[in-house]
Amino acid sequence: MSFSQKDVDRLLAECGRMCCICKKLHQVQVHHIQPLSEGGSDGIANAITLCPNCHDEVHERSHYSSGCTSRRYSISELKLHREFTKKIARKEQDWAPGSRTWTEDRHLILFYAQCLDRPAFRTYFHQELSFADFDRALADTITAINTGCTKVGDSTLPISKGKVFLIHRDWREAMDTAVEKLEEIRDALRRELGLNNMFMDHDRFGRHHSRFHQATDLGDWIDQTRQEILDSVNSILKELDQPPLKDLKAGF
Ligand SMILES: [Zn+2]
């Protein structure tokens, strides 16, 4: 058994073809919130749209899987995600420059821009002094864009909201891509250099130098990737009549 085509069409339209968890638009699938094997129905009330990644995760971490230590997806949580997604899709239809939803999006974009306005995005890789600080800055930026929380001293405070709250899908996709790129940079640092290597070496003259500074290919790729992130956010800022972020070329 499966959902009727009519129900699936309606659900896809109501959710704006978004994945109800991560709000991405690609390759959306329709999942039974309560499995058929547990008495779930083929009615639309039991259906949710999910992308392949979130679909796998829901299967791995759902209320009916065993041996799972991280927080599981409950039926009621999945239904809340679906209702929230429908709300985003409805708001999207009202989105126009100057509208209330546009103003809310604008606040979010300005917050994310502020999070990217830091030395970690304006210093060439080969000039970085502390890779631990650099990595931490990237991690904090990812958290801020994902959750709206920023580090203030030792505490993390909810200042704004995460990128899933963006209504304009182009802007949401731009921020999704920005976070993916930041995660790739962090992965590359770990994979290619290992953050255990971040201490400074001494050469035979007793001078300090860092092995990181010799990794030119990686450095060039990281510089280029950060510039791509800034370019994409700067194009949104331009649409909002806001000044662009300073980039690697501008320096401090
Ligand atoms: Zn998803």
Keywords:
single chain, 252 residues, mainly alpha, two-stranded antiparallel ribbon, two-stranded antiparallel sheet, 7 helices, 48% helix, 8% strand, binds zinc ion
Which structural category fits the helices and strands? Answer: mainly alpha
The N- to C-terminal Cα distance equals 61 Å
Shape: globular
DSSP helix fraction: 40-55%
The succession of helices and strands, N to C, reads HEEHHHHEEHEEH
Query: How do the strands line up in the largest sheet?
Result: 1-2
DSSP E strands, number: 6
Q: Uncertain spans, ≥5 residues at pLDDT below 50?
A: 198-209
Count of helix runs: 7
Mean pLDDT: 87
Strand content: 5-15%
Radius of gyration: 22 Å
Total domain modules: 2
Bound molecules: zinc ion
Note down, in words, how this protein is organized.
The protein folds into two domains: 5-94, no CATH class; 100-239, no CATH class. The strands form three sheets. A two-stranded antiparallel sheet has the order 1-2. It has a two-stranded antiparallel ribbon with strand order 3-4. Helix content is 48%, strand content 8%. It contains seven helices and six strands. The chain is globular. A hairpin with a 5-residue loop joins strand 5 and strand 6 (208-209). It is mainly alpha-helical. It binds zinc ion. Zinc ion is lined by residues 19, 21-22, 24, 50-51, 53-54.
Summarize this, please?
With 252 residues, the protein is mainly alpha-helical. The chain is built from seven helices and six strands; from the N terminus they run αββααααββαββα.
